[in-house]
Write a structure and sequence with these properties.
This protein has 136 residues and is α+β, with helices and mostly antiparallel strands. It has one domain. 25% of the residues lie in helices and 21% in strands. The chain is built from three helices and five strands. The strands form two sheets. The chain has a three-stranded antiparallel sheet. InterPro entries: GIY-YIG_endonuc_sf.
Length: 136
């Protein structure tokens, strides 16, 4: 099992080893109610089942507005029957996912999100990610 703490630790390792900077911080769990954290920022996201990271994804999109994390992951939920402007409640559309966490990047370094995603998948091997082979 890959815990959220292990994800955060591995993320910090990436920034220390390759960027020599303190990187951005993962959000609190979003449980499909209200606005997704870092909705309009480019970055990474993770699907969770309880405290287990089951998938790591990338949301850098195109360089136009509407290409943030929210635009990328919006296919993973739908509005619930109880949805209203005052109470935004959603239902996940992915099996075995009960929350999402996000990691925002600033516009001048969002490209690092792509490298981080590959690094996290290679190091952690989340059960719902395809592992890219490394030929030696």
């Amino acid at each position: 099992m890959i815990s959220v703490e292990k994800l955060k630790e591995t993320t910090n390792d990436f920034f220390k080893e390759f960027c020599n900077i303190d990187g951005p911080t993962w959000s609190e769990k979003w449980k499909f109610e209200g606005e997704l954290p870092h909705n309009t920022k480019k970055g990474c996201y993770a699907h969770l089942k309880g405290n287990e990271v089951v998938y790591v994804g990338l949301a850098i999109g195109n360089s136009f507005d509407g290409s943030g994390i929210g635009a990328r992951v919006s296919k993973y939920w739908k509005k619930s029957e109880n949805y209203s402007v005052n109470k935004q409640v959603y239902l996940p559309t992915v099996k075995d996912v009960d929350s999402i966490i996000t990691l925002p990047f600033e516009p001048d370094n969002f490209y690092l999100a792509a490298a981080l995603e590959v690094y996290l998948i290679q190091k952690l091997k989340p059960i719902k990610n395809k592992i890219h082979s490394i030929k030696k």
